[in-house]
Design goal:
α3 packs antiparallel against α7 (184-207) and α6 (153-165) packs parallel to α8 (214-227). By secondary structure, the chain is of the alpha+beta class. The termini are far apart. The chain is built from 8 helices and 6 strands; from the N terminus they run βααβαββββααααα. It has one domain.
């Protein structure tokens, strides 16, 4: 069946001049890439999200910093950075949501893409569109990437809680994600990739899932405040 491209009004809206220098992350060939992820796909659409254009965007941007737990990159994580979200359909049924982010790796930019369940927000597949790293082979390995299937943003926030409360053990799904034969030069990119997955899920929670995982973040914050 022929695949049709659907572009929302939001995606074609004029981009302010300040955003022209911002670096976003888009699929190289959306129709082909999405079809490979969802063979049953009949249509898809692109939505462009930019913090300056969102209601409460400045607050959301500061929220991204707080939820990542680190300073934001001045090149790939600016206030003006555009984010493209792909929604995949079979007829009128949403099959999934696909989104990618840029994170600075040791050997260059790393583009971390996730396909997620349209209803639950759970990861269906992690893949790297661009990965310049001494650990590229290990990070692209199915054995590594498959560990993320089924994880949600709640699991990352729960991980924060477990770290602060010194609990968790086997319940900490994020802590159980292990690198596959990654030697010292590539460990940084392993950690950067984890940050990219987390960042991706946070943005999707902001843009698509209505901050449904916020209670888990608040619980982690309470544990962090108690630890202090």
């Amino acid at each position: 069946m022929k695949t049709f491209f659907v572009l929302t009004l939001l995606a074609v809206a004029a981009i302010p001049q300040v955003a022209l220098g911002a670096i976003g992350c888009t699929l190289t060939n959306p129709a082909e890439n999405l079809k490979s992820l969802y063979p049953e796909m009949t249509t898809y659409k692109e939505d462009l999200y930019e913090f300056p254009r969102l209601k409460g965007g400045a607050e959301l941007f500061q929220g991204l910093r707080a939820r990542l737990g680190a300073d934001l990159d001045p090149i790939y994580e600016t206030y003006e950075t555009p984010y493209t979200v792909y929604t995949v359909f079979k007829g009128q049924t949403r099959l999934g949501i696909v989104h990618g982010v840029n994170v600075p790796g040791k050997g260059g930019v790393i583009q971390v893409f996730l396909s997620t369940d349209a209803s639950t927000g759970a990861i269906k597949q992690l893949f790297f569109q661009r990965l310049e790293s001494p650990a590229a082979r290990a990070l692209r390995a199915t054995g590594f990437r498959s560990q993320f299937a089924g994880l949600t943003l709640a699991d990352f926030y729960k991980h924060d809680y477990y770290v602060e409360s010194k609990t968790g053990g086997a319940a900490d799904k994020v802590a159980s994600v292990k690198p596959v034969a990654i030697e010292a030069p590539g460990i940084q990119d392993y950690e950067t990739s984890l940050r990219g997955v987390r960042k991706n899920l946070i943005l999707l929670d902001f843009f698509v899932y209505g901050k449904r995982f916020e209670p888990f973040f608040e619980r982690a914050q309470a544990a962090r405040a108690k630890a202090r």
